[in-house]
Specification:
heterotrimer, A alpha/beta (about 100), B alpha/beta (about 120), C alpha/beta (about 130), A: alpha/beta, Hypothetical Protein Ychn, Chain: A, five-stranded parallel β-sheet, 4 helices, 5 strands, about 20% strand, globular, C: about 130 residues, alpha/beta, about 35% helix
């Protein structure tokens, strides 16, 4: 079980590296420029929908970027939600 | 997995050696861990594998030679080094000529390795 | 649970250092122990005392000192990175013959041993880079 955090845009190497390591029972949180992977219909969004991991987006960052946080298959969370994920996941991998 | 301390630590390197100061900071952290007898293991993913390039030459620029730091790690007891096999082939790196002995892993094996540790520090 | 944070991201550029700050506050609010925040590499710039922003933007350094004051959180900046980035306390400024210290006094300059120790002590180490 790995909690992945992605703070890099979908065209980054970080996004690709992260994508290749998402497993079932893992969770991903999109934050910073990572929120652009939550834009429905994009390649990045489709790629994440195809991954077995549960995907979240940090609400404040999505709103700042003008990205709709309420899209199918992605759970919007606040910082409370992120801390709660770190309580449940024993380790975090930061991609940036 | 190992670690004489309470927690086993894997340092994950995902950035190139000279594109930022992250690689240097991470290697310093690895050396410090060894100095405090809490040896860590290392995993190089994506652009991180570029740190293993053997022909680094800093003669022309007064910049710290990352390859030399990397090559010194086994002297400090850091000898479990894993690399992203796909990235190695993408960058056509010759692991036999690389700076230190490594084990190349496919993504599933990398994931399996990562979940063996308590903490993942990502540089 | 015992938490430690590793901050590699600079202030002002990007959101990662702000994430770290909000995360730190939330960890404490949820009843956990925040053992230490370790600032490494460009993360050491979060200690810069001289940051001046327009009035309608939040200063990134003051909330860290408030956190340290209110909750006795250790804010440690790595000495190697700090010197590289020009982040000096009074002692380092004197030692290296620089005119004045450049860091906020809520931060302590120390070695990477403090990160090693944090990893050994903490149940969770959360990294903020970017």
């Amino acid at each position: 079980m790995i909690l992945h955090t992605l703070n890099a845009s979908p065209s980054s190497a970080a996004f690709q590296d992260c994508l290749s390591l998402l497993h079932a029972k893992d969770a991903l949180v999109l934050l910073g420029d990572g929120v652009y992977a939550a834009v429905a219909g994009t390649h990045a969004y489709e790629a994440l929908q195809g991954s077995p991991a549960r995907v979240h987006v940090l609400l404040s960052d999505a709103l700042l970027a003008g990205v709709n946080p309420n899209v199918q298959g992605i759970v919007p969370i606040d910082m409370e939600g992120l801390v709660s994920l770190t309580e449940n996941f024993p380790r975090q991998q930061a991609w940036y | 997995m190992r670690g004489s301390g309470k927690n086993a630590v894997l340092m994950v390197f995902t950035h190139s050696p000279y594109g930022s100061s992250l690689a240097g900071a991470g290697l310093d952290a690895a050396l410090a861990s060894a100095a405090f007898e809490q040896p860590v293991d290392l995993l190089f993913i994506g652009d991180g594998v570029l740190q293993l390039q053997s022909k680094q030459d800093n003669q022309a620029l007064k910049i710290k030679h990352m390859g030399k730091v990397l090559a010194s790690l086994p002297l400090y007891g850091i000898d479990r080094v894993y690399v992203d096999a796909k990235a190695v082939s993408r960058y056509q790196l010759d692991l036999d000529a690389s700076l230190l002995a490594t084990e190349a892993l496919e993504p599933d094996k990398m994931h399996k390795l990562m979940v063996d540790y308590d903490h993942l520090l990502s540089f | 649970m015992i938490y430690a944070l590793l901050v590699l991201a600079p202030p002002v550029s990007g959101q990662a250092s702000r994430h770290a700050l909000t995360f730190a506050r939330t960890v404490i609010a949820r009843g956990h122990t925040l053992h230490r925040v370790f600032f490494l590499d460009a993360g050491t710039l979060n200690s810069a005392a001289g940051i001046v922003l327009p009035q309608d933007e939040a200063n990134p350094v003051q909330p860290w000192s408030a956190l340290a004051r209110q909750h006795a959180v250790e804010l440690v900046i790595c000495v190697t990175s700090a010197l590289r980035y020009g982040m000096l306390d009074a002692e380092e400024a004197r030692r290296h013959d620089r005119q004045a210290p450049t860091i906020d006094t809520s931060f302590t300059i120390s070695g990477l041993g403090d990160l090693v120790d944090a990893c050994a002590q903490a149940d969770r180490v959360v990294t903020f880079g970017g």
